[in-house]
Amino acid sequence: MLPLYQKLAAIQSALKAPKSQYNEFGKYKYRKAEDILESVKPLLSENGCTLTCTDELVLIGDRYYIKATAILTDAESGATVATTAFAREEEEKKGMDGSQITGASSSYARKYALNGLLCIDDTADSDTTNQGDSKPTRQTKKAPKIAAHIPQATPGQADDKTDMMPGGKMYLEIVKAFATGRKTKKGGDYRTAWAQATNANEDMLDAFDHDVATYKLQNNIQPVF
């Protein structure tokens, strides 16, 4: 009987979870938690394991987070291994009621809990790059490829707004600031400030969240509360 960690290693090596979803607005591919589960089920059967996902609503400060846990269980020994991920519930989202906001947060958190457990690389697509003009610096890790899938500002808009769009001078710094938990000079969060400055719609906000998650995964940043 193989130890659970050997079974997990076999599942991680064999798992292929392609990005089968496509965002028409942003012109990029992505995967959902359901895509990962569909791909991993045959491997679970082959290795005698089960996989479950649970959610917990956690109040941290004055905001609610969904804490998702992905648990791999060895059907033979009962041994388990688990990873967790967090997603913050928005106070409100246009066109969504409370249950839909919680459901969206749950799906997002579960996806990244599964990513961690199954060692899924969720970097940006190969044809998306950060087009900022900052000079490269020496580093041991590759620079994160932040997706440049939000439309550029149209002619006539203020230069500072253009700079906040992907490819602009400020966008990557805003993503990094939010990902690392830094606050604006007024004590607010950079996501809200960015959304207000660019009049971001729902697709733009989703794309921003995608870039933040990508940056965190590539730099091994744990959720900052």
Given as residue ranges, the uncertain stretches (5+ residues, pLDDT < 50) are 123-159
The biggest beta sheet is recorded as: 3 strands, antiparallel
Q: What is the rounded Rg?
A: 19 Å
- Please list the strands of the largest sheet in the order they lie side by side: 3-4-5
Q: Indicate the mean pLDDT.
A: 75
In terms of quaternary structure, the protein is: single chain
How many separate helices?
A: 7
Topology at a glance:
Elements: H1 4-14, E1 21-23, E2 28-30, H2 33-47, E3 49-60, E4 63-74, E5 80-88, H3 98-118, H4 159-163, H5 171-179, H6 190-198, H7 202-218
Antiparallel strand pairs: 1-2, 3-4, 4-5
Helix pairs in contact: 1-2, 5-7
Description:
- This protein has 225 residues and is an alpha+beta fold.
- It has 2 domains: 4-118, no CATH class; 123-225, no CATH class.
- It is built from 7 helices and 5 strands; from the N terminus they run H-E-E-H-E-E-E-H-H-H-H-H.
- The chain has helices spanning 4-14, 33-47, 98-118, 159-163, 171-179, 190-198, 202-218, and strands at 21-23, 28-30, 49-60, 63-74, 80-88.
- Strand 1 and strand 2 form a beta hairpin.
- Helix 1 crosses helix 2 (33-47).
